[in-house]
UniProtKB/TrEMBL annotation:
Keyword Hydrolase annotated: no
Species assigned in the record: Mesorhizobium jarvisii
PANTHER family in the record: CARBOXYLIC ACID TRANSPORTER PROTEIN HOMOLOG
Gene3D superfamilies: MFS general substrate transporter like domains
Protein's UniProt keywords contain Membrane: yes
Listed GO MF terms: carboxylic acid transmembrane transporter activity
GO cellular component: plasma membrane
Annotated compartments: Membrane
Alphabetized Pfam families for the sequence: MFS_1 (PF07690)
Protein name: MFS transporter
Alphabetical keyword list: Membrane, Transmembrane, Transmembrane helix
Protein topology in the membrane: Multi-pass membrane protein
Length: 405
């Protein structure tokens, strides 16, 4: 992969932005039971924070994407990162569950903009032959953020430093860290060459572009709904499954989750690169097929070791499929709205799938606390749905990216 120094810095900035965005999001998944205890409620009630975060992300994708299509990818990406960092940290000061849920909804708006901005900036800045591998790198930011959250949770949570025991509130204060990326972006990352070139011409607006391409946009939203069920349905409640159903301590939950996310990174890199050889559609299909036989090991094993193996294979499959998505959506999207449309499609799919967490928790509690059953049900059904739906997708591997089409 032959990239210039500037292109490598652009990819790094986009990767870090998504990694620390995911870190902020996944911190919550480790803390659901503790927040529920402090606010005197149950896990399904607190898991509505997951729903609200996912449900509001499409607003941020649209808002920040529109700004980026008008003012540039780089400055709006910096604004977006500062926004989600500050709002994420404010959750530490929530006096009650209502305020906490409201802040997580606002965090969702800020979080929703990053993926579209980062992926469009990176994809428009690199040669076509590098897109598949870079797509895998970018999407690996998500499991890398989850892995980082798992490491931090395992190392810091409930530890005593200077007489102060680190609880869930202190964990959310770590959300301030991503704001430091802005300094790197400001000094080292250039604006998208495609955007700079497009400023010399008159570009069609969002509504005009959507009128021409509404069929692809609608199809992509449905596809992303299933993709978000696939990822969040296998990730968000997994720490709760390990704690509540198996009674594992924070250290055990942490290392199993770390193993899962190592698998996710392997899958994202491998299938992103593979998509350059066998195509985007075939790579996604293959990844989903791998998920199906891993379900019994992942959801019904009884020992930490076997659960870790199952989680590794499952996340190879899940994030393997996801590793193709940044490049696939950018290739499907018209150039004039590339900062807006891929992110909006992604987050609109998130909205459609946003109640998955509370719904899964409800299924588990109704089944006598069997989170394994709820996880297995979601993973199996959704993997099959993606295999069917992706076969109808256009294949636009390697097309030239401009901001005028």
């Amino acid at each position: 992969m032959n990239l210039t120094v500037e292109q490598k810095k652009t990819v790094l900035a986009s990767f870090l932005g998504w990694t620390l965005d995911a870190f902020d999001f996944f911190l919550l998944t480790f803390l659901l039971t503790d927040i529920a205890s402090e606010f005197h409620t149950d896990v399904p009630a607190v898991s509505k924070a997951l729903f609200l975060t996912l449900a509001t992300r499409f607003i941020g994708a649209f808002f920040f994407g529109m700004l980026a299509d008008k003012y540039g990818r780089k400055p709006i990406l910096m604004l977006n990162i500062v926004s989600y960092s500050v709002i994420g940290a404010l959750a530490a000061f929530s006096p009650n569950l209502g305020i906490f849920l409201a802040l997580r909804a606002l965090f969702g708006i800020a979080m929703g903009g990053e993926w579209g901005l980062g992926s469009s900036l990176a994809m428009e800045s690199i040669p076509p032959s590098a897109r598949g591998f870079v797509s895998g790198i970018l999407q690996c930011g998500y499991p890398a953020g989850y892995l980082l959250a798992a490491v931090v949770y395992g190392l810091l949570y409930q530890q005593t430093i200077g007489g102060y025991t680190i609880g869930w509130r202190a964990m959310f204060l770590l959300s301030f860290v991503p704001a430091l990326i802005v300094l790197f972006i400001r000094s080292h990352v250039p604006e998208s060459p495609a955007f700079v070139e497009a400023r010399k011409s008159v570009r069609p607006g969002l509504l005009e572009t959507l009128q021409k391409h509404w069929g692809v946009a609608l199809y992509a939203v449905v596809l992303m709904m299933f993709f978000n069920f696939f990822s969040h349905g296998t990730q968000d409640l997994y720490p709760t499954f390990l704690k509540k159903q198996h009674g594992f301590d924070p250290h055990t939950v942490s290392w199993i989750t770390i193993v899962a996310n190592i698998g996710a990174i392997v899958g994202g890199l491998a299938f992103g690169a593979l998509s350059e050889r066998i195509g985007r559609v075939n790579a996604i299909t293959l990844a989903c097929l791998i998920a199906l036989p891993s379900i019994p090991l992942w959801a019904y094993s009884t020992t930490p070791f076997m659960l870790a193996i199952g989680a590794f294979v499952m996340q190879v499959a899940v994030q393997g499929a996801w590793g193709v998505i940044p490049v696939h959506l950018n290739e499907l999207s018209p150039g004039a709205v590339r900062a807006t449309l891929p992110g909006f499609i992604y987050q609109a799919g998130n909205l459609a799938a946003s109640y998955g967490g509370p719904y899964q928790a409800g299924i588990a509690e109704a089944a006598g606390g069997s989170y394994g059953y709820a996880l297995a049900l979601f993973a199996g059904v959704v993997a099959v749905c993606i295999i069917v739906v992706i076969r109808f997708s256009p294949e636009r591997r390697g097309q030239v990216m401009t901001v005028l089409g």
